[in-house]
Design brief:
Blueprint (H helix, E strand, L loop, with lengths): L14 H12 L17 E5 L9 H5 L5 E2 L7 E2 L10 H4 L5 E5 L12 H39 L9 H23 L2
Antiparallel strand pairs: 1-4, 2-3
Length: 187
């Protein structure tokens, strides 16, 4: 939404009141929740059927608040107090071992959240984004250093050190890194 690619009517957890608040913040007209993105209902927590979990880590990667813990080829579990009920882990699971269990009774949308709960979720999401961005940056730096080292290790007679050749190679590497970043950002 911040990038202008999504409308304000696509957040089932926020419900009708969330859409009203987004409309007020963005100056966009309020509209009903888009049913293609879900329906307003009580907040739920993800629960992993540990007997079926194969430890693939796909749910861990999908969780925007890092509330799923486990290791490769090991059973995973959800830290209930940190789960926002976003459901992004459900389609990521290849063995369908994640269920969403309602935890707020009849309270839906904005009423299903306390202000402290919302603040903690926001902070966890911000830290998740920081961690993912840092890991991507560190990986890009590692790859660039590795490429530079390979270039430096070439025999002198095969190195092309004229500025135009170096700039051309640098452009090719930067384009490849940009494509890799773009693929990583596609949901």
């Amino acid at each position: 939404m911040a990038a202008g690619e999504a409308d304000i009517d696509r957040c089932p957890p926020g419900g009708a009141e969330g859409i009203q608040r987004l409309a007020a913040l963005t100056g966009r007209p309020a509209k009903p929740l888009d049913p293609a993105h879900g329906q307003e209902r009580p907040r739920a927590l993800a629960v992993i059927d540990e007997a079926w979990c194969i430890g693939c880590t796909l749910c861990i990667k999908a969780c925007p608040v890092d509330c799923i813990v486990g290791a490769s080829k090991r059973m995973h579990t959800v830290i209930d107090a940190q789960c926002t009920g976003c459901e992004l882990c459900v389609p990521a699971c290849p063995v369908d071992c994640i269920a969403m269990v309602p935890v707020t009774g009849e309270r839906t949308g904005w009423a299903a959240w306390s202000t402290p709960d919302a603040q903690v979720a926001r902070e966890r999401y911000d830290f998740h984004r920081f961690r993912v961005d840092r890991a991507a940056r560190e990986n890009d730096e590692r790859l660039a250093a590795k490429a530079a080292q390979k270039l430096a290790d070439l025999p002198a007679h095969t190195q092309h050190t004229d500025p135009a050749t170096i700039e051309r190679k640098r452009a090719v590497i930067e384009a490849a890194l940009a494509r890799a970043r773009a693929r990583r950002e596609i949901p």
